Amino acid sequence: MNCNNVRKYFYAFLDSELDVEKNIEVLAHVNMCHVCGLKIEKERLLQERVKETVCKVKAPAYLVQEILRSAEGEPNFFDLFKKNFMFRNKVALLSAIATVIILIVGFFIMQTHTNSLSNIK
Questions:
Q1: What is the pLDDT along the chain (121 residues), one digit of tens a residue?
Q2: Fewer CB within a 10 Å sphere, N or C end of the chain?
Q3: Is the dihedral of CA 9, 12, 16, 22 positive or negative?
Q4: Are 35 and 6 in contact (CB under 8 A)?
Q5: pTM > 0.85: yes or no
């Protein structure tokens, strides 16, 4: 691997997202290339500092309460899915019942009409 190829994988390498083969290739290159070794170390330190800083910042209590309150009032995905699924099942059931009734009524009308025509002859 050359330097340009390895640099494409820096963040995935630092986040342990590479497969074993790519991980070994990147590690081998970084161990042999002083420039890439320094760059990946700078990126690692930057990621570490960002994580430390983010972990120190806390949301204000009023914001946490507001988010929790708004989340409680809104239905979640599963509730909406269940509600819509049950509604669709009821519509499908009613449609099936209506279709059967129409077919039965149509059958009897056809029978009556056929019998009427037979009696005329």
A1: 889 989 899 899 999 999 999 999 999 999 999 999 999 999 999 999 998 888 888 888 998 888 888 777 666 777 776 677 666 667 677 788 888 899 988 888 887 766 666 666 5
A2: C
A3: negative
A4: no
A5: no
